[in-house]
TrEMBL record:
Gene3D superfamilies: 1.10.606.20. InterPro entries: PAP2/HPO_sf, V-haloperoxidase. Residues 1-31 form the signal peptide. This is Phosphatidic acid phosphatase type 2/haloperoxidase domain-containing protein. Keywords: Signal. It comes from the Bacteria. SUPFAM superfamilies: Acid phosphatase/Vanadium-dependent haloperoxidase.
Length: 445
């Protein structure tokens, strides 16, 4: 009954919102990410831990839905997560204030339920992109709304959440997702070609042409070229990955092998939610945490794939097996060499994992205002968890892991990680900034 009442009021409230009852933020003082709850005592009581958990629960639902419906490889999943988290962020800050909305200028009455708005926004985006999951998503929305008191605040929140979701859906329409982007494999020294064991074509090449969420273009932060085949740096990179990244006969320690496997797939959405819960984040802070992290990682993978398309460098497994063709007297061919991990089907430079890692850590340090990120991250590959106190600890591991796994050169990792940090720093100067506080509640229509 509660869900039907909320949805029956949607048309009326959306119409009211569209007709001008949305309030604009008024000038005031800036609020930091760690500041206490803002004005509106009665509203704040309803918007406590329960509302912050609404964001966390729906990002968990998004993660499960994306995994079940899209079966994405890790880079793709962050794109979907970014769509959901930006819609949730706009829905929440459009009511709560605190932070500048993402590419939007709409506001809702302060008395609307931001928890209902968050749930409605996530539901709408996921239902649009994954219609097959509609029954499960509808049931999840019913459960979320059952935790919120009936009435005009809930109805307004649901309506505003749908409005925020529709904006993101429209904003990302025809953004290049899934487009055909050819990359002809050329069997020349230094040039990428399909790798064993599957010898699959370039996977998800469209990511390198996807319209970014924060950056101006996919190539805005494209770094300079990788080391030349005949350079000393190239020979050093190849020797390291050959010695430490092999499946057998490697110089890796057991701890290094564990790090390589641990970093393969991580539950980063769960880590963000855990951080927000342990640190007592409110709903606006929590929505901002997810949105900043996911959009920065999405634009990082776009940047990495742009470099892969542009430079097209061969992977270590090819480079080591065919080192007798590279013209470098300091390299030695090993035609039977195999990496510890299966090599993904795309070029070496840049490393997607390392680029995303740098962007994630720089986004978090920018949002949190400290290098102490305090993240408990579980690996879905190994089932183990690690605690990263500081950003540099994660950056170190994500760079090392791809070398020790035998699938990237250190240069591809280090340049990628630095590129990710630069692009996230640039993005945070434009997006997710503290906004002037709004002056008191605006009456519901």
């Amino acid at each position: 009954m509660r869900n039907r009442r909320a949805w029956s009021a949607t048309r009326t409230v959306v119409a009211g919102l569209a007709c001008g009852v949305l309030a604009l933020a008024l000038p005031g003082t800036h609020a930091s990410a760690g500041a206490g709850r803002t004005a509106g005592a009665a509203h704040g009581a309803e918007q406590g831990e329960r509302s912050a958990s609404a964001v966390i629960e729906w990002m968990r639902t998004a993660d499960a839905t994306i995994d079940a419906e899209a079966h994405p490889v890790p880079p793709e999943s962050f794109i979907w997560e970014a769509y959901v988290s930006t819609a949730v962020y706009n829905a929440v800050v459009g009511i709560e204030g605190r932070f500048a909305p993402y590419k939007w200028d709409q506001r809702a009455p302060r008395t609307a339920s931001s928890a209902a708005a968050a749930a409605s926004a996530a539901h709408q985006v996921l239902r649009h992109h994954f219609p097959g999951a509609a029954p499960r998503l509808d049931a999840a929305l019913t459960d979320s709304l059952a935790k919120i008191p009936d009435g005009a605040a809930e109805d307004a929140g649901v309506a505003f959440g749908k409005l925020a979701a529709d904006h993101i859906i429209d904003l990302r329409r025809d953004d290049g997702r899934g487009a055909s982007v050819p990359f002809p494999a050329r069997p020349h020294p230094g040039v990428w070609r399909p790798t064993p064991p599957g010898h699959e074509p370039f996977a998800n090449a469209w990511i390198g042409r996807l319209r970014p969420l924060l950056l101006d273009s996919p190539h805005q932060f494209r770094p300079g070229p990788p080391p030349a085949l005949r350079s000393a740096r190239y020979a050093k990179d190849l020797a390291e990955v050959a010695a430490y990244g092999g499946r057998t006969g490697s110089h890796r320690t057991p701890e290094q092998t564990d790090t390589a496997r641990y970093l393969t797939n991580l539950d980063l959405q769960g880590a963000l939610g855990d951080h927000a819960t342990r640190h007592g984040f409110g709903i606006a802070e929590t929505a901002r945490l997810y949105a900043a992290a996911n959009t920065a990682q999405t634009d990082a993978v776009i940047t990495a794939w742009d470099a892969k398309l542009h430079y097209g460098t061969w992977r270590p497994v090819t480079a080591i097996r065919e080192a007798d063709t590279d013209g470098n007297p300091a390299t030695r061919a090993d035609p039977h060499w195999e990496p510890l991990l299966v090599t993904p089907a795309h070029p070496d430079y840049l490393s997607g994992h390392a680029t995303m890692g740098g962007a994630l850590m720089r986004a978090l340090t920018g949002v949190l205002g400290t290098s102490r990120v305090d993240l408990h991250i579980r690996s879905t590959t190994t089932g183990t968890s690690r605690h990263y106190r500081y950003a540099h600890e994660y950056d170190r591991d994500v760079v090392d892991a791809r070398v020790w796994g035998g699938i990237h050169t250190r240069t591809a990792d280090e340049v990628g990680n630095a590129t990710g940090r630069r692009l996230a720093a640039w993005a945070l100067r434009k997006y997710f900034r503290p906004a002037p506080l709004r002056a008191g509640p605006v009456p519901l229509p």
